[in-house]
Design brief:
Chain A: This is Terpene synthase. Chain A: It comes from Paenibacillus paeoniae. The complex is a heterodimer. By secondary structure, chain A is an all-alpha fold. Chain A contains 14 helices and no strands. In chain A, helix 5 packs antiparallel against helix 9, helix 10 packs antiparallel against helix 13 and helix 10 packs parallel to helix 14. Chain A starts with a helix and ends in an 8-residue tail after the last helix. By secondary structure, chain B is an all-alpha fold. In chain B, helix 2 packs across helix 3. The interface between A and B is large, with 47 and 29 residues.
Chain lengths: 307, 80
């Protein structure tokens, strides 16, 4: 995880500033906000970090464009506020705890203000930055509302990246600050591929919870497509059969493999994004091969599990 | 410790190649496996060994492997 560990020193003061700013929110949102931020702080439990691409993207962009450390720090700061804002909206959308909605949405609004304040310092109102931001948030909204009905993962899987699309705004900012607007398109493609694979990992981790709560999930969508049946008609046992007996994780992982090939085929290269994506694809490969090994052992009977 | 070949296959091969081991395996399978492979099967597990003949076969139906806990692999589950 060099793509992460080499930037820990830069991240510490940025997260410290986030904590200081959130502490100034009206009571009790300062405490609530910092407790929330701490859950997603990749500096806590460093070896099993939680959120990477959002906070690290500005620093990875230094591998492609000429950005000062200070500019990276400001973009990372804005992205952290944005990350927390969109996570809260995500939580509210999925939540059954109505009593927390008031504090969550108040906190989200304040975090959005903080994010916008940082970006306004860097980009005047007539900067093309704001058109990109508008676009990414619009795509995000379309994604959260329609990924289910349009079955994104089956019909156009790159669209699943849209749910995390706002994170790209820091990369757009990096390109504009460096005077390299012409790179934005391919940089956006490389990040979209990473976000799609990231979502695939998330969907593997959460498929049971998503099935219980009726949330859209790419892995479940793939299985429903392969069975030719409506997901609502499939039981958990049927899904488990597809995962643990019928090898669907191999086909799922192949999709991530193809993403990596596409990433390598782009004309721009951000080494940390390649390393990060490789890390995620390897994770999926390990899961798929772990399942196959387990199945092979099981075929020989319970005695094999004592070896 | 047994190598890559699954334990079941190793036990069967040894029983084919070693008559004494085979007799012990049929009589007291846990002791035979402990002696030959150094593997202790805990008391709460039952183990039965059956020998096929020219006209009698056995088809064992193992437990369904739909168990996430048995899947090996260190995975990071980052959000964005």
């Amino acid at each position: 995880m060099d793509w992460y560990k080499r930037h820990i020193t830069s991240l510490k003061p940025v997260f410290h500033e986030v904590q200081l700013q959130i502490m100034q929110f009206p009571h009790p949102l300062g405490d609530i906000g910092n407790r929330y931020a701490e859950k997603y702080n990749p500096l806590v439990d460093i070896d099993k970090g939680k959120d990477y691409i959002c906070v690290l993207l500005p620093y990875w962009m230094q591998e492609l464009v000429d950005l000062s450390d200070e500019q990276c720090n400001r973009l990372a700061l804005a992205n952290i506020y944005g990350m927390l804002y969109f996570f809260i909206l995500d939580d509210v959308m999925d939540s059954t705890q109505i009593d927390r909605v008031k504090s969550q949405l108040s906190l989200a609004s304040l975090l959005q203000l903080k994010m916008s304040a940082v970006f306004r310092e860097l980009f005047p109102s007539d900067s093309p930055f704001w058109a990109y931001y508008d676009r990414y948030v619009t795509v995000w909204a379309d994604c959260v509302m329609n990924e289910d009905k349009a079955d994104f993962f089956v019909h156009n899987p790159i669209r699943t990246a849209g749910k995390a699309g706002p994170v790209k705004i820091s990369a757009v900012g990096a390109c504009l600050l460096a005077g390299r607007e012409e790179l934005i398109d391919e940089v956006g493609q490389s990040i979209d591929l990473s976000l799609m694979t990231l979502q695939m990992l998330d969907d593997w981790a959460d498929w049971q919870e998503d099935m219980e709560e009726g949330n859209y999930n790419g892995l479940l969508a793939l299985i429903a497509f392969e069975t030719g049946k409506d997901l609502k008609s499939l039981t958990i046992e049927k899904i488990k059969s597809h995962i643990y007996v019928l090898g669907c994780m191999n086909r799922y992982t192949d999709i991530a493999n193809r993403n990596h090939k596409s990433l390598l085929g782009l004309s721009i290269c951000i080494p940390s994004i390649l390393e990060y994506h490789d890390y995620m694809v390897n994770s999926l490969r390990e899961i798929a091969s772990g399942i196959e090994n387990n199945k092979r052992k099981a075929l020989g009977g319970g005695i094999n599990f004592f070896a | 410790m047994p190598s890559e070949k699954e334990l079941r296959e190793q036990i069967i091969e040894k029983a084919w190649a070693d008559g004494e081991f085979k007799q012990q395996l049929l009589k007291d399978p846990k002791a035979a496996i402990q002696d030959a492979f150094g593997i202790e099967i805990p008391a709460e597990f039952k183990l039965t060994v059956l020998e096929e003949t020219d006209d009698t076969f056995y088809l064992v139906l193992p437990k369904n492997p739909d168990d996430k806990e048995n899947v090996v692999g260190e995975v990071c589950y980052p959000r964005w």
